[in-house]
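User: Here's a protein and a ligand (fe (ii) ion). What would the complex look like?
Assistant: Let me lay out the input and then the predicted complex.
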Amino acid sequence: MPFLKNCWYLAAWGEEIPAGGMMARQIAGEHVLFIRDDDGNVAAVSETCPHRFAPLGMGSCSHGVVTCPYHGIRFDMAGKCVENPHGPISSALKLKSFSTAERHSAIWLWLGDENPDENMIPNYDFIDRTAPDARVKGYLHSRADYRLMVDNIMDLTHADYLHATSLGGGINTRAKAQAERDNDKIKITWTAMNDQLAPLHAQILGSDLGDFYNQVIWEAPGNMVQRILLSRPGQLETAGMDSLTCHVMTPETEASTHYFFCHTSDAVSAHPEIAPGVRAGLVAAFADEDAPMLAAQTRRIAGADFWSLKPALLPSDKGAVLARRELDALLAKEGAMA
Ligand code: FES
Ligand SMILES: [Fe+2]
């Protein structure tokens, strides 16, 4: 299996699950139903009815109780059957339940058998520190392998080609890149000084030339946080524009991914009215440029083991390769324990 189980998956932004409502989403191959009660508490259970396997997400939810749309059996938030209109409540009438946590305005899900450790939830407290109207948040569905989506963020030289007229132009390839392990995280940093900025950055800064610092830190399985500092030449330390963005690639199936992002910056915090425009730009870059490529790669690889295809390795792949190796090691460890 290409999925880790004993880890926290970002499964939804908190606002995707309304009070008293529910939402079905497949996470790492598992069909999961997220339920929020009237008090705001969230729980997660299997979304498949144990009777004839109807998707419970097609049913209804009221005060934390879910009704199967097919024959009306009802389950509570713990997955316990609370009503069977057709007979006794047998022990087979229950739903598997999963641990959840709500943090950084997101719902995190634990699918594994090991005890969930909330200290393992990635620290995205920059979201909490940012006013809600200055958070440029989004969710995008992608028909791509989540590991290719991680490669995409861990090797931003692609921006010079795939996003040539916005985030590219050559600076990402010219920048000095340094990839390294930091305990169980992988960190890659690109720096370019007094260089021709990407068109979008030149526009934001009002200067074609500038200093550029771009860092991505990955942690398993597909959680990345990116910091970009941007300034006129020589001013990075004193007057740099600062932004933090999380890019979270949560696998849906082996060939599809939930992409969650939240971008914050001092510019958007100072002028929250620009948030919708920034959001539209980020969504367009991904949806129009990255997503078609990632889906095409996924179709071309067609489920084959990535390493068995003997991919050509370039120096610019170092961060992505370190992340894949770390993930492979964790998957092997879980496989050995199973
Ligand atoms: S399939 Fe759910 S009650 Fe029959
Ligand atoms: Fe991209």
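Summary: The chain has a mean pLDDT of 97.
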